[in-house]
Amino acid sequence: MDWFRAVNSYCERTDPGIWSEPVNAATNAAFLLAAFLCWRRVGARRDPGAALLCVVLAAIGVGSFLFHTFAQVWALMADVLPILAFILIYIHLATVRFLGAPVWVGLLVAFAYVPFSAISARGVEVVAGPMNGSVGYTPVVILLAAYAAILWRGSPSTARGLALAAAVLCLSLAFRTLDAGICAAFPLGTHFVWHLLNGALLGWLILVLARHDQCGVARTG
Fold first, then answer.
1. Is residue 193 in some structural domain?
2. Could you tell me which residues come within 8 angstroms of residue 158 by beta carbon, excluding any fewer than 6 positions away?
3. SS3 for 56?
4. b or e along 171-201 (b: 16 or more beta carbons within 10 Å of the residue's beta carbon)?
5. Which residues have a Cβ under 8 Å from the Cβ of 74 and sit 6 or more positions away?
6. Of 110, 94, 83, the residue nearest 194 (C-alpha)
7. Backbone angles phi, psi at 149, to 5 degrees
8. In a domain, 127, yes or no
9. Domain count within the chain
10. Dist CA 126 CA 122 (whole Å)
11. Is residue 196 part of a domain?
């Protein structure tokens, strides 16, 4: 693998230069701001799981900034790996806390996400196409909606929070998908909106996780 191969995936980038995506790069501050604000709220409450997610959220901002500046394969890995880490950690914590499952079940469900993601994304791609590379995130929408449905009666506040997150992610994916198709009409593209919405979305998911314990549900992991 050529780790230094240039990657050009978004409207805003017109050359391999490090500052060819200034707006896409700058809007990664949304992840850092969300991580900071969530840390202030959950870190003081000594919630190790939520605090870990805050750290990973900050890593997402850093990794995405590197990708939208250097735009090389190694930077792409720095972008996508923290996102995957956030998803897996959140699935584990959600399974243990929201559903009251043992820790080992939470780990099993998190590991099962990898094949589930591949299969469900392929199914969505058959219907909707590759969605400009966004199809790989559609399994997260499915999971959020599934957890919301399961929790709707027992923990309605948490369920509403997850349902809202699923809706915001759908909107975010729409902007990510639109980016490649509107370059001629709008050279800046819409990928930066993906950053802004996702910064708020991931911060919101951390707060939903932390607030679940404050709604009379005993923490199990």
1. yes
2. 98, 151, 208, 211, 212, 215
3. helix
4. ebbebbbbbbeeeeeeebbbbbbbbbbbbbb
5. 3, 4
6. 83
7. -65, -40
8. yes
9. 1
10. 6
11. yes
| Closest-CA residue to 82 (of 129, 127, 35) | 35
Angle at 14 between CA 9 and CA 20, to 5 degrees: 90
Backbone angles phi, psi at 72, to 5 degrees: -125, 170
pTM: 0.94
Please check whether residue 69 lies inside any domain of the structure.
no
User: How far are the Cα atoms of 167, 201, 205 from residue 164, in angstroms, in the given order?
Assistant: 5, 9, 10
104, 110, 114, 117 alpha-carbon torsion, rounded to 10°: 140
What percentage of the chain's residues is helix, strand, coil (to nearest 5)? 75, 0, 20
Instruction: Report mean pLDDT in 10-residue bins for the chain, 221 residues.
Output: 92 95 98 96 82 97 98 97 98 96 98 97 96 96 98 96 98 96 95 98 97 57 41
Question: What secondary structure letter does DSSP report for 13?
Answer: -
d(CA 196, CA 177): 15
* 169: containing domain: 86-215
